[in-house]
Design the sequence.
């Protein structure tokens, strides 16, 4: 009996995830959103902090939500093996530099545990890489994951071939997957949470 119950539960989970996959592959909106299935897979929290920091930095709030999803799945306590902290996985040394540039003289590394501070600093960094790469979203998202130095080399190679950086040009498998994940999640957050995230960027 227990085996049958577990099997049935597993089938229900698989069916739910299949519904999410069908909805996403249809273009994130071509089919009625599957309610709690999709919202479980793509959660949203801290939308006030997201929209405030996104607007302050001229960013699409759905892109910010997508980066948070890819970085931490909205877990404010997330830590990486490399020392990155919080929702947007900001490195303390990066945050210290941002604090210097923005006049945050009272900043200490533990401030990154505050979701509002973490999102504010993550948005500032995301804006800086977008500016660095002339607004190229693929390059900026890749830089958020792999660093601006590496992406600068990939972008230069792409330009030498006569085109902008494409996801397929990214040599790191992890970064390719990351960029694809963020781009897909951005569309999903726009469609699913339009009532909670503005779309004027």
Sequence:
């Amino acid at each position: 009996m227990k085996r049958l119950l577990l099997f049935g539960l597993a089938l229900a989970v698989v069916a739910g995830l299949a519904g999410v996959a069908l909805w996403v592959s249809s273009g994130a909106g071509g089919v009625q959103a599957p309610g709690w299935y999709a919202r479980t897979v793509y959660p949203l929290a801290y939308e006030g902090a997201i929209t405030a920091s996104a607007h302050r930095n001229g960013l699409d709030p759905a892109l910010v939500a997508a980066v948070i999803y890819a970085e931490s799945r909205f877990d404010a306590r997330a830590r990486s093996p490399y020392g990155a902290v919080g929702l947007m996985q900001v490195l303390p040394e990066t945050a210290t530099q941002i604090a210097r540039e923005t006049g945050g003289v009272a900043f200490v590394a533990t401030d990154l545990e505050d979701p509002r501070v973490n999102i504010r600093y993550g948005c500032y960094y995301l804006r800086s890489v977008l500016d660095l790469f002339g607004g190229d979203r693929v390059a900026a998202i890749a830089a958020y994951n792999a660093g601006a130095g590496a992406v600068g080399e990939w972008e230069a190679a792409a330009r030498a071939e006569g085109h902008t950086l494409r996801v397929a040009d990214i040599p790191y498998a992890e970064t390719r997957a990351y960029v694809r994940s963020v781009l897909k999640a951005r569309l999903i957050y726009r469609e699913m949470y339009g009532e909670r995230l503005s779309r004027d960027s």
